[in-house]
Amino acid sequence: MVRPKRFRFIGRKPTIDYFKPRGIPLSELQEINLTHEEYEALRLKEIGNYDQKKAAELMNISQPTYSRILDSARKKVADAIINGKVLKIEGGVFKMVQRKFKCFQCQLEWEVAFGTGRPSKCPNCQSTNIHRVNVETSGFGHHGRGGMGKGKGSSQTGQGMGQDGQRRGQRFR
Ligand SMILES: [Zn+2]
To answer: What gap in Å lies between CA 96 and CA 110, rounded to an integer?
Structure first.
């Protein structure tokens, strides 16, 4: 009767995972545990402004499941704030997934969490000749043939954009 566990995807872990009401000893406080999935559901919806369909897709779950997780997250956060409880973000069954980008100018590869915008340029050399590299996601972000090649003749980096990027780059120098 073991149900196979399907991993839920999360794009980012919290930088702060513990919130405590000021001036009350810990021993007198109740603790609420927000799971990483609940944190992620909240983040995608309220900070990333994704609709439920997209957010569910990003987390590799169905919409009803997403909706249930989000609801639970909101209730817990409200409970902590309204009733003055400790909020701890911990646990869950999940897998970290991030978007990976590669710069064709300096070959740098870096990762960006889901729910944040697409980077416009390379953080290292400021080139706009960057491309998405797929990591272990559940099938969105299709790449055409040879997507990871050197970018030779890749039509996406056509002259118009390239020049614009260069001009902009110079202005900031
Ligand atoms: Zn670069």
So the answer is: 15
Ligand 1 centroid, distance to 40 Cα (angstroms): 29
Cα–ligand 1 centroid distance for 124 (angstroms): 5
Domain boundary among 95, 116, 132: 95
Domain that holds residue 132: 98-171
- Of 31, 63, 95, the residue at which a domain comes to its end is 95
pTM score, whole prediction: 0.63
Question: Could you tell me if 70 and 19 lie in one domain?
Answer: yes
Distance 121 CA to ligand 1 centre (A): 8
pLDDT of residue 61: 94
pLDDT for 98 beyond 90:
no
Please provide the size of the chain in residues: 173
pLDDT for residue 149 is more than 90: no
Ion ligand 1 neighbours, Cβ < 5 Å: 103, 105-106, 108, 122, 124-125, 127
Let me know: does 76 contact 34? Beta carbons within 8 Å.
yes
Structure confidence at residue 12 as a pLDDT band (50, 70, 90): confident
* pLDDT of 170 strictly over 60: no
Q: What separation in Å is there between the alpha carbon of 105 and the centre of ligand 1?
A: 5
Q: What is the DSSP string of 37-59?
A: HHHHHHIIIIIS---HHHHHHHT
